[in-house]
Structures are given as structure tokens and as C-alpha cells.
User: Fold these one by one.
Assistant:
Number 1:
Amino acid sequence: MTPPANPAVRDRLRIAIQKNGRLSDPARALLSACGLSWRESRDRLFCYGESAPIDLLLVRDDDIPGLIAGGLCDLGIVGRNVLLEQAGEREQAGEPAAFRELRPLGFGGCKLMLAVPDEWDWQAPEELAGKRIATSYPALLRSWLKASAIDADVVTLSGSVEIAPRLGQADAVCDLVSSGATLAANHLKAVHTILETEAVLAAPALPFGDTRADLADMLLRRLDGVLRIRDSKLLLFQASRDCLAEVISLLPDAEAPTMMQVDGSDSIALQALCHGVVTWQRLEDLKRAGARGLMVLPVERMLA
Ligand code: PRT
Ligand code: ZN
């Protein structure tokens, strides 16, 4: 059965992104790479879409799921950690799911991890039973504790979680970790991953019932093209037929190569879209395997 359409009717799409923070610049860069441009308002909170009817609202990341749930924004770029935390809060309050993840976006990656003081001789998560764990992600932590059948106290803090053990507020912490430097500086060690997170495109649980559906489809097609070629390169070269198998075995990250017979020879011209990094070392290996005239070209746009 098709779910009922999202009730608010609008003919422009509104995307919420973080105003200032780790996700602001990469989110804007990604949307610009999709061909979008905007005119900024004086207060820099609203950007009017010029190249397409797609506007931006610049807000705090924590407000993004609520803006989508309330129908004030249509899409959002936010960390999966924030989206799932707020989805968990809604679920624990008995409210229906209001938003969903449409696409992982490949930036803002980090992990939500359990960490304990360096001197703790950590063996297994069961050791947390009866302990106090400080976090800014109580819903995610609670649901992990429940799934792991561990009975621990959750101490909710809005920031500076990593100093809670030193202040005697908690025995362990559950916080975002990227390099691990913050934990190390606070004499803590990461012991278990609760969630792998990155920036995601978030949408309402219900589909749009108006022009916004077409605008969202267009944006997704462009996003998929941009994400697919982000680290990709087009590799052009020639090889004789008897080397083909070995040469192709060196391109495990390539899409099926296009091959053309070179007139008057037993050589084949190949073009392959490689999704991994094409290093000099890789080119040397390909040459040794029989590839000739290797050329690496950047890929600017792609529409599948
Ligand atoms: O003002 P606003 O509320 O919008 O921003 P914010 O301060 O809440 O968020 P911001 O900009 O810090 O982070 C936005 C999103 O970036 C997060 O929700 C994550 O999805 C993602 N992200 C990626 C991170 C990190 N990496 C990260 N390292 N968010 C926070 N951190 C913090 C972490 O909390 C810890 O304090 O960085 C510290 C750890 O870093 P390392 O490198 O020392 O391990
Ligand atoms: Zn925030």
C-alpha cells in the first residue's frame, strides 16, 4: 500500500544544512557540485535557490530532524548520529517515525564509541553493568544497552562528556571519536563502537505529494552522479589481446571496461572508470602487465 503523501504543499524544495560547524562547508560544496546556486539573505539564515527552486535554511545541526518532522524543511544534511538519536527519542516517547536516511554522503565520518579510563583493564561490555556512563546520545546508548542486556546508568550531558570521569560524574563515556586525540588527552581509551556515522541526506518518512517529489528526484540523481565519481578517474590505455586478462585483474575497482579493436593490429583500446585511487605505482604495475599509452583523466560529471 502506498503511504499517504506529506500534507504541506509547496513548489520549492527547502534543504536544512548546518550553519556553522564541521558539516557546513562540505554540505554546501556537495550541493554546489550538483549545480545548485543561491542568493544569500542578509542574516545568512536563508539562501534563495537561483539555478533551481531549491532553497537552503542554515541552522544548528540538532534542529534539522525536528524541522523535517514538522514539515518546515523538506530535506536535511545532518550526521547519522543526530538523526538516529532523535529518531530514538521519538520512539522511546511512543511517537511515530518522522524522518529517514536517504543517502550516506561520504563526509563527516566518525564513530560513537564507549570509552573508559586508561587504567581500566577492559575485557568486555558486560563490565559496564551497574556503572554510570556519560553521553550526549542517551537514546542511542540506552537502545544499545537494552540490546546488549546491560543494566547501567545513563548520565546525559550536553557537552564536555570526556571530562565526566575525572570530575567523578561517571565511570565511562559514550562519545563521538574521530582521531582519538580528545580521548587520549583525557586519559580515556575507546573500547567499543556503538555506531559508525557520517553526514547523511535526511528526508521525511512520508513522500512528497507535489512538485517537491520531482525536485527531490532530480537532486538525488545529481547527488548519485557526484558521489559516484567523487574519487573516480577515467583510465585510457591500449593492450594486446594476450595481456588483457592480467591487465584487467589489476583493476578490481573499475566498472566493466569499454573495449575497442585498434584497426590493423591485435591491440585493444580500453577505457575504464576506476573508483579507487589511481597511483603511479598502479600505473607501473599496469605497464608491466602489458598496458601501453596509459592516460588518467578526471571525471567532472556523470548521469547514469
Ligand atoms: O552548532 P551546532 O549544534 O550546529 O554544531 P555541533 O557543535 O553540535 O556539531 P559539530 O559541528 O561539532 O559536528 C557536527 C557533526 O560532525 C556531528 O554530529 C558528527 O556527525 C560529525 N563529526 C565528525 C563530529 C566529529 N567528526 C568529531 N570529532 N562531531 C564531533 N566531533 C567531536 C567529538 O564530539 C569530540 O569532542 O570531536 C571530538 C573528538 O575528536 P577527536 O579527533 O579528538 O577524536
Ligand atoms: Zn549540535
Note: The chain has a mean pLDDT of 94.
Number 2:
Amino acid sequence: MRRKLAAGNWKMNGLKASLAELTALAAAPAPSQTDRLICPPLTLVAQAAGVSGGIAIGGQDCHTATSGAHTGDVSAEMLADAGATSVIVGHSERREDHGETDALVRTKAEAIWAAGLTSIICLGESLAQREAGETLDVIGTQLEGSTPDAATGANTVIAYEPIWAIGTGLIPTLEQIAEVHDFIRAKLVARFGEDGNAIRILYGGSVKPSNATEIFAVSNVDGALVGGASLKATDFQAIIDALDAA
Ligand code: PEP
């Protein structure tokens, strides 16, 4: 039985005052079947960990090394030291803005494990790839290349995030979400056996309170990675409630 996961990605948004949103979330009763995670910008990770109560805190990226001459980067060990328990890797904005490859994402995922944290590995097709009928090929290749061999339900979460749905208000049809999530599940089970059944698969891309319930009813959707709607406690709480009730 997989626990559900509501994960918020604040991206490059949030000043100290934004911690009030986290405090508001932390004041709500803990859901029974759902884990909660907020990934604030790096500047807020340590402070967030101090006020988040039962809500886990994560990073949005990390370097492959534990320390060294890498100006501007942060290691998984540093994130762990600041109170993080998970790190997002391979977000499409990192893949696009910083040229991150599947091989790099895989190495980062291993660095995250080495620090004792969970890797949230993001996959997603572009609109051109979807329109060309390449979605499953693209997702299969990214999944294979970005996920290290020792993945388990405890150390890995997969997030399917169609690039064209991120921040656009567009979402795939429920059938399209089911097709990709079922495909990812089958690939995980084929590669990892029973561990493949324990790895949670999140959907990400314009999840809102208004569409959460229908998305969470889709097979093999174990939760969501939420961008914009995680910035406001009331919106994210509504998504948490919809997930816990699903
Ligand atoms: C994201 O960037 O991970 C994301 C899903 O963003 P949004 O919810 O704003 O589409």
C-alpha cells in the first residue's frame, strides 16, 4: 500500500514572509493517508524546517558532489543538514534552463540517496513530442536514463510532469494521464520487481483545487507535484484534502 504524497515546489518564489503560508499549512490537522512536502527556495530551507511541523521540507536541486569548488551550488548533504528530507531532480526547468541530461539527473539522484534523502525524479514530454506521438518513448527513455538501479519506494518518487502543462493551466485528459502513469508503473515493475510497485508516481502540471479530485481518481496517480497552487496555503490545503479523500 503506497502512502500518498502532496509535494509543493515553490520554485524561485518566496521571501521570509512566505513562511507564514507554511505555518498555516502546519496548523491544519495531519491527513491520515497523505505525506506533505514543501520545497521552498534554498534561502528558506533551514527556516522552513524549523516551522513546518509535520510537513517535510525538500530542496529543488543539488550538485552531484558533497562539497568542493562549485560556486553557487548546494550539495544534498547541505540540504540534509538544513533539515530537508527530499530533493527534486530533473525538473523540466532544470533540464531546459541548465541543460541537465538523464545521466546527470541519475548521478544527482544517487548523491541524494548518499545523503540519506529521497529523490523526486521528474519526467515530461514537450508539446511537440506529444503531438508527434512520442510521449511514451520520451518518458520511457527519461525514466530508464534518470533512475538509478537501486531505486526503491523508500528512496525514490517519480513525478510525471508534461512540460506543456506546467504553469499553463492546461492539463492532459484523464485518459492521457492514466496512459502515462500506467506505463511508468509497468516499466518500474519490470525493472525493480516489487520495489517498482512501492515507488510513488506523482502527476504535476497545473494541479489546482478545481481539478485535483478528478486527477487523483486516475489509476497509478499517488499524489501531485504542485507549483503555483502550492504558494497559497488555502489552495495547497484544498489539494491535500482532495488527495487524502481520494
Ligand atoms: C511544477 O513546476 O512542478 C508544476 C507542476 O507547476 P504548476 O503546478 O504551476 O503547473
Note: The first helix runs from residue 19 to 27.
